[in-house]
Design brief:
Strand content: 15-25%
Order of helices and strands: HHEHEHH
Strand order of the largest sheet: 1-2
Oligomer: single chain
Shape: globular
Number of strands: 2
Amino acid sequence: MLDNIMLYWLTETAASSARLYAESFPIHATRQVVDIPVGVSLFAGDTFLPPRIWGERTYSKLFYWNRVPRGGHFAAFEQLALFTSELRACFAGIRT
């Protein structure tokens, strides 16, 4: 976690990286359907945990949906083993 924080601190890019969040959530957002294969893992400590029905309405090709008991917004840093197992579970069905 310290490495991640220092990356933004030393390069003075914290503000520009936060800009993504400010611009990604407009006040009057319209729902757009995403028509590509999508897998979703929801980590229990994340800031937003939408219901599956919302995912099904937005992602027409939703093929994986799972709630994970631990981890948060930065799950890849917080729960590396769980994050890795989610990636493997998600893509196991489409591997050749």
